[in-house]
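[recover] target loaded
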């Protein structure tokens, strides 16, 4: 049983990490970082980093999610952003019998191909601007990890909180999307995607 001073130290420790998460969103930390009450740990594929992600209360509304620093979607162009997120899920959640996290690395080429297939037409010059803008917004809110230099993408740490019902819905969604072409990667699958400064997209 912990002593009163240890209990106080634990509460202060948890409060400190919650303040950091509410300020900056999900945080990448050393795997040796002790657990924090209420924060889910999402390990990177190579084990070098662990993300601390707020555990979402069941049925949490927008006000609660905003307070936790985890708004449900990026608010800029929500339809396009949600469309691109669904495409990244289809490209990166290759083993849909298991969890979506951490998923596989996908490519901008795949995203563009599925996007054109969803729209039912050949790719247009404006499509790339919309796609890149959405990828940047989703990266900024930790829904995805977007390596702009390599034009590669994978799912972000926030998807660790998708429950069984969420994943069942997403599996059904993926079945209705065009199949992406095979991924041709410039990085190795085990190489973590670096975080980049988020630039304003040309359509913002």
């Amino acid at each position: 049983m912990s002593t009163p001073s240890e209990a106080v130290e634990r509460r202060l420790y948890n409060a400190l990490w919650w303040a950091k998460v509410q300020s900056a969103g999900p945080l990448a930390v050393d795997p040796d970082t002790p657990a924090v009450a209420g924060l889910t740990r999402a390990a990177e594929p190579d084990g070098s980093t662990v993300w601390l992600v707020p555990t979402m209360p069941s049925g949490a509304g927008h006000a609660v999610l905003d307070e936790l620093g985890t708004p449900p979607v990026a608010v800029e162009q929500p339809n396009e952003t949600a469309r691109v997120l669904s495409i990244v899920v289809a490209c990166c959640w290759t083993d849909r019998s298991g969890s979506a996290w951490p998923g596989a690395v996908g490519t901008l080429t795949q995203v563009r191909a599925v996007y054109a297939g969803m729209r039912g037409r050949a790719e247009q010059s404006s499509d790339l601007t919309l796609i890149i803008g959405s990828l940047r917004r989703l990266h900024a809110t930790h829904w995805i990890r977007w390596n702009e230099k390599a034009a590669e993408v994978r799912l972000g740490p926030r998807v660790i909180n998708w429950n069984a019902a969420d994943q069942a819905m997403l599996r059904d969604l993926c079945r209705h999307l065009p199949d992406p072409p095979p991924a041709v990667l410039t990085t190795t699958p085990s190489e973590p995607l670096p975080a980049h400064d988020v630039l304003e997209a040309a359509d913002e």
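[recover] notes: The longest strand covers residues 39-43.
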